[in-house]
Amino acid sequence: MHFFLTAHLDEKNVKQLIRLLLSKFGRRQPVRSDMEWANMWRDLKLFQEKAFSFLDSEYMLAEFIRGLLKAGKFSLARNYLGGTSAVSLSTEKAENLVIQAAREYFFSASTLSGNEIWKARECLNLLPNSRNVQAETDIIDALTIRLPYLGVTILPVQFRQVKDSMEIIRMVITSQTGAYLHFEEIIDVAKLLGLKSEEEIAAVEEAVAREAVVNGDLQLAFDICLNLIKRGHGAVWDLCAAIARGPPLDNLDTGTREKLLGFSLSHCDEESIGELLSAWKELDVHDKFEKLMFSTETNPPNFVIDRSSITTLPVHNVQDILDLRGGSSHDRDKDYVETVREMLSKVCMDLPNEDAHTWQAMLAENRKFLSFSALELPWLLKLSNNEEQDGEIQALRTDDPSRKYRFSTKVEATISIIYWLAINGFAPNDNIITILAKSIMESPVDEEGDVLACSVLLNLIDPFNGVKIIEEELKKRECYQEINSLMTIGMLYSALNNSKKECSTPEQRRKLLLDKFHEKFTSVDSAISKRLFSSFVDSVKQEKKHVLKEAVNIADTYGLQRTEVLLRFLGCSLVSECWDNNDILSEISEFRDDIVKSAKGVIDMIYSDVYPEINGYNKQRLSYIYGILSACHSYLKRTSEIELRYPEHVHTHKLEAFQYYKVLEEECKKVSFIDGLNYKNIAGLDNLNFEHFNEEVCKNIHASTVSALADMVQSLVSMYVDVLAKGLISRQGVYKHYVLGLLASLEGRNEARSNCTDCEKLQAVLCEIELNYDSCKEYIQALPATDILYIIGRLSHSMRAFRQLLINDDITVHQGQGQLGSQTADPINPLDLLELYNTTMDECLSDLIEGSCEHPISLHKLLSSLSRSTEKHAGILEMNSWESWYEHGTSAPTADETTNSLGGITGTLVALRSTQMVAAVLPDANITPENLATLDSAASCFLELSKHASSVESVAVLEAVLEEWDQLFSSKDEYVPPHGSPKETSDWSDGWDDGWEDLESPKKNLDAASSPIHPLHSCWMEIIRKLVGLTEVQKVIEILDRASSKHIVLLEDDEAHSLFDVVSALDCFMALKIVLLLPYEAPRFQCLQMIEAKMREGTVSTSSNADDQELLALALSSGTLQKIIAEEEYSQFFSYLCHLVGHLAKSFQTDLLVKWNDKASSPAKASRTSESLLFGRLLFPCFICELVLKGQYLLAGFIISKWMHTHPSLGLMDILETSVRQFLEGQLAQVQQLGGSEPSFSDNVLSARNTISTLQSRLVSLLEAALSALPRQEL
Q: Which of 242, 568, 954, 1081 is the 20 to 30 Å CA partner of 1178?
């Protein structure tokens, strides 16, 4: 006992004890049945509620599920993972439990085919839709299936020690010869091991490529490297460099080698930049040579052209070069040195004058000089002087705009020579520059060609050579425009040469050129730059290059439109798989304002180039695009620019463009986790996709997506005013589709098991029904009533087999309760059992009402089954036997027997219902038919229950229980109102009773004898006492007022006095309201005298009751007001009532004035107006009537004059009686005119609604009596 009392001090020890208890329970042999586990859950709940209340229910459920998983009770654990009727687990906790249990099984396996592996899989199968659980399943598949197939065996205990999954991948690649060739399988294994990100997959591919290089498989390594280059994986730069400088491979042409080296240069270390740059330059030169070979179909001696390929012949020494050149002199060493000097002198300036020996040493060290000078330079010089193909090339240059800047063969050959000289540190001489300039200026040529030729001539050492060339070209030209262009350029050339003396640095010369040729160069630079930028920017589609800032700087430098560059980059990056949204946002953040200012261009670009290329399943990118469109349209609206107009559609949303795209952005982002959802089938750029909307939504409705899809549908369809006309699915439609899908699946699985009587299998059926209902009940509640009835009907259909088993006594109630035990929060709470019997009884009772002779027998058997269970559930459910119920074929029972039987049925059902009601707040409470057999037993039972009620909620439940018991103990006699006096009921008049002094009020005081006292008055007294103790006195007024509507008195006289004593000590005005609702005069006047005394002493404040309409209504309705008016001893209280009426009258008229001036209505104003109307239409006329009936004409007239704001000058005239009469007649005419359309004031916020309603029903008779009581006017 001491342990339980002090358990809260050592929570950790208690948790260990519970875990140990469940562990031992699960390990015992024989294996525990599902029923025993269900009993264990009930025991755990009892422990938690009675002894370990400091542990929450969620923790207890988690530990119980952990025990089930360790014991291998996976099917039962599946039911509890979904939660019970009282507690449920979060998705995260459920995943952790399953994953931990699966890991314990998996890591304890000594082989890859052991039973523990199977258990781990079964454990993970409990949550098949969880991503985290699927990751664990993937690891098991990788270790047990995929890795052994690749020749690698890793036991679970070994895998546990692996820190990086890449170690396993490397082990696979190097495990056996040729293992790297299983490329796809290796990638699949990597993904199963958790290497799923783009960077991780790239690392795996890199490892395969490196292993391929080690094994000499350069072709595979090359293919992999090309793929990695597209994804920007920089770590593979060294492999790319090696392949680019390596032997020939398929598809490895010079351009591809350049690309590989360029990528290497972008990612290499600092030490390798020089070497790689030299290699790239050499490749670039060879690339130019190859293009010339293809275009001219000629080649130098060291190259061989074979159709579409070019082969370089090996050159290992000087002999090889001479052999290729065809030399035959015996002194070849001297010949080749002289040859090199001779050839280079034709194109180079300032060659070194070293002797032959020095030249030999230099050429031996760098064979490319010898190879170029002896083999390639002669071929290039020959091409630069070739006249045959120039005409064709020039024609192509002018006829086709796309080839406008394609140079002639002579120009290309000359440029190749100059380019080789530049990268090898030689300066071209005037001869080669002259050749280049002449080639460019050859006719036909336009002004841009002349500008370019002039720019080349500026590089001459001797400027007079340039003048000579221009003069020669002028003599050749015949076209006036060409002559005029060249003359202009010639003059500009002369001016530049004259100014060149002032420009000593390259920067100054460059600035001079830019200034002089700005207009001339603009069109040329623009066209060339656009072409270069197009290929430069487009490269970001294949590789994530951070080049935007550099591209914008270049555009600014050369006068290009930066907006075009920005839009080009944005479009390319949006359609690229290499860039994610954050990367794009980061790259364009510096230029965001420029992009937004070009909103129209952005919108056009997205419509034409971007959106058609985006995959509908890429919802992250689509959401980002919608956001851009929203921002652009919002900018256009803010700047008052005309927005783009698109063709009108049949269905048009009611939002503006920026709002429409904003909704699409948000909703697309919310459903991005649904992998199978193609958002292009949901929405397009202009409207929703009406053709595929419903189909796409419905095929993606699952347990994990139903809420998100319902929210998305609600947001999207709300944009349209004609949703029904379009036939789009609604939020409720999504819910209905999901629920009906569950039902169809459930019915299909349960049909074969519906006739089973095995408790274990029957429990699975019932658990599945409850779990399905729990998972979708919130969706069912959101459906229309007709759909709810249909769905509940199908659920009930699943219970019919179980109902028939109960009726036929094939299973007992105890077994039935066992099926529901695992879902019952309290092990001794029969609520689920009662719900079960209520459900199964519905059809029997319905058919019994229709008069079927078969169903009374079924109901008899059902209730007999319930009755016979009392022997096994003593203290839980105790019911009388139902065996006396007549059976089919027996004689009909007598009237007394029928009455007793019906009474017994009612008592049993009321007991069942009451137990169910109190269980919500008093789970240990049990109400049996014997408890309700007599008044004494019922009162005793109720008083025992009330001992545990300590909150407003629990008292409210007890109040509802008492009202439920009314059908057992309330009198069946109809209420007969008290008879009026003979004078009131007389139907004749002889004129003898004309005196108003003797007229009695038509309202008689209700005494205790006119209404019966409630049989369970002591129980009601206990409820009222509890409410007073909880300071809920207003609820007491509601209860007493509600009882008066049933014409029954809840308290006896003594109890009323006792209640008055208690409440008056708290609030004397509240005490007065209570006693005015009771028919006992003694406590009424005792309370009035107490208030009067306190008012005279000044010890009570009336400020808080200055607008208490409820007190005025109760005083008017109870009949006490006449005594208050008549007797002097209540003068202070009467004065208070008159002041109260004046204050309420002022408030009423103020509210009416506000209402007339302010047409807009709000809930607060409507409530205030309703309260004012209650006073003006009902309470004030009743108060005036009471004054008149008691002879207070003067006071009544004075109050009416204030009410009607009568001018003071009229006070000199005796008009009081006339005013009172006209007021009463006007009120009576108004009430009679409204008739049944008079608004009900019982719906007011006051607690005494029935009192108000009664007073309203008596208003006409009260007005007529007051008019009769007025003195007759003399003619």
A: 1081
Strand partners, 349: 427
Q: How far apart are CA 933 and CA 176, in angstroms?
A: 87
Instruction: Provide the 3-class DSSP secondary structure of residue 1148.
Output: helix
Beta bridge partners of 1049: 1013
Which 3 state secondary structure label does DSSP give 883? coil
d(CA 1178, CA 1231): 10
Question: Nearest CA to 1263 among 1202, 1206, 1220?
Answer: 1220
Q: Is the dihedral of CA 20, 23, 27, 32 positive or negative?
A: positive
Peptide bond connecting 314 to the previous residue in cis, omega within 30 degrees of 0? no
- Please enumerate in sequence order all residues whose Cβ is within 8 A of that of 1244, keeping only pairs 6 or more positions apart, or say none: 1170, 1171, 1174, 1252
1258 Cα distance to chain centroid: 58
Paired residues of 428 in beta bridges: 348
Alpha-carbon distance 319 to 657, whole Å?
77
Asked if 95 contacts 103 with a C-beta cutoff of 8 angstroms, the reply is no
CB atoms within 10 A of CB 211: 20
- β-pair type (303-306, 309-312): antiparallel
Burial of 914 (0-12, 13-18, 19+ CB in 10 A): buried
Could you count the other beta carbons within 10 Å of the beta carbon of residue 609? 16
Cβ-proximal residues to 669 (8 Å cutoff; 6+ apart), any chain:
619, 620, 623
- The model's pTM is 0.42
> CB neighbours (10 Å) of residue 500?
14
Coil vs helix vs strand at 673: coil
Residue whose C-alpha is closest to residue 104's, from 148, 147, 66, 145: 66
Q: What are the two backbone dihedrals, phi and then psi, of residue 1079, each rounded to the nearest 5 degrees?
A: -85, 20
Cα dihedral 472/474/478/483 (nearest 10)? 160
Say if residue 422's pLDDT is above 60. yes
Cα→Cα distances 143→53, 180, 186, Å: 44, 18, 13
Distance CA 1123, CA 327 (A): 149
List pLDDT tens digits, range 649-698. Answer: 344 667 888 888 889 899 999 998 898 999 999 988 888 888 888 999 99
- The mean per-residue pLDDT over the stretch 748-772 comes to 60
- Structure token digits, residue 944: 């025992």
Rounded to whole angstroms, the Cα distance separating 690 from 692 reads 6
CA-to-CA dists, residue 915 to 507, 643, 838, 1056, 1093, angstroms:
99, 68, 13, 30, 49
DSSP label at residue 978: P
Q: Please, where are the H alpha helices in 366-505?
A: 367-371, 377-384, 390-399, 409-423, 430-441, 447-457, 463-476, 480-499
Position 204 pLDDT exceeds 90: yes
DSSP 306: E
Amino acid at 1170: S
pLDDT at position 1206 over 70: no
d(CA 1199, CA 1180): 10
The pLDDT tens digits of the residues spanning 57-73 come to 888 888 889 999 988 88
What beta strand segments (E) does 1151-1233 contain? none
- In 321-391 the beta strands, taken as DSSP E runs, fall at 348-349
First CA to last CA across the chain, in angstroms?
Answer: 96
How far apart are the C-alpha atoms of 903 and 1228, rounded to whole Å? 50
| Of 929, 869, 874, nearest in space to 901 by CA | 929
Distance between CA 446 and CA 1049 in Å, rounded? 116
Beta strands in 679-763 (DSSP E): none
- Neighbour count for residue 226 (Cβ, 10 Å): 18
Could you give the 3-state DSSP secondary structure of residue 289? helix
CA proximity to 872, closest of 836, 805, 818: 818
Check pLDDT > 80 for residue 1195. yes
Task: Give the mean model confidence (pLDDT) for residues 554-559.
Answer: 70
In angstroms, the CA 29 to CA 13 distance is: 26
